[in-house]
């Protein structure tokens, strides 16, 4: 059995850089577009139809998320060519990055899978995750899955974040380390 890192809510989110299609590098933990919180959605890659559906569904929540000061970025271990090909299936306006390394996946405590066949993909990839980073750069909320069909409902996530953002001093949950 291999031990894996588990990020603790309330602690600083690690700096994770990835590349955008235009060749620029983005720090995924930094909010953008005037927001002060950041949501990072980690997806498996272009080979996953459930990921494509989830990323497109996330686009439908952009207005609500912007309204509560939360920006969104997505990332996978796909190559630039795979992301370019994937963009044909995506109808999104938020930044989407590629090239997440295995070291970065481990740093984030993600589940990592091997491809079943070369037709699926040509590299190890992470299973889905969702991270929310607050204005202090600390991990506010996290959901890490080992399979593409266990993801938080985006309607619930948006409503929950709106609730938290509208409270005075709402505590970060799950901060007791063991």
Task: Give a verbal description of the structure.
With 178 residues, this protein is an alpha+beta fold. It has a single domain, classed as Glutaredoxin, CATH 3.40.30. The protein contains five helices and nine strands. The strands form two sheets. The chain has a seven-stranded mixed sheet. It has a two-stranded antiparallel sheet with strand order 6-7. A hairpin with a 5-residue loop joins strand 8 (129-133) and strand 9. The two termini are 19 Å apart. The relative contact order is 0.22.
Helical/strand content category:
alpha+beta
Find the CATH superfamily. Answer: Glutaredoxin
- Which architecture does the CATH hierarchy give at level 2? 3-Layer(aba) Sandwich
Strand order of the largest sheet: 2-1-5-4-3-8-9
For the record, give the distance between the C-alpha atoms at the N and C termini, rounded to a whole number: 19 Å
CATH class: Alpha Beta
- List the secondary-structure elements in sequence, H or E: EEEHHEHEHEEEEH
Count structural domains.
1
């Amino acid at each position: 059995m291999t031990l894996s890192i588990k990020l603790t809510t309330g602690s600083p989110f690690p700096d994770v850089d990835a590349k955008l299609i235009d060749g620029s590098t983005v720090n995924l933990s930094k909010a953008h577009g005037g927001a002060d919180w950041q949501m990072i959605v980690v997806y498996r890659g272009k080979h996953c139809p459930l990921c494509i559906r989830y990323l497109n569904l996330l686009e439908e929540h952009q207005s609500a998320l912007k309204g509560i000061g939360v920006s969104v970025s997505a990332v996978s271990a796909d190559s630039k060519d795979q992301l370019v090909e994937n963009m044909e299936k995506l109808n999104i306006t938020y930044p989407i990055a590629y090239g997440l390394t295995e070291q970065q996946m481990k740093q984030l405590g993600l589940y990592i899978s091997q491809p079943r066949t070369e037709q699926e993909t040509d590299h190890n990839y992470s299973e889905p995750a969702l991270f929310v980073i607050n204005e202090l750069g600390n991990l506010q909320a996290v959901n890490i899955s080992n399979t593409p069909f266990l993801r938080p409902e985006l309607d619930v996530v948006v409503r929950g974040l709106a609730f938290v953002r509208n409270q005075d001093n709402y505590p970060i949950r799950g901060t007791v380390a063991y």
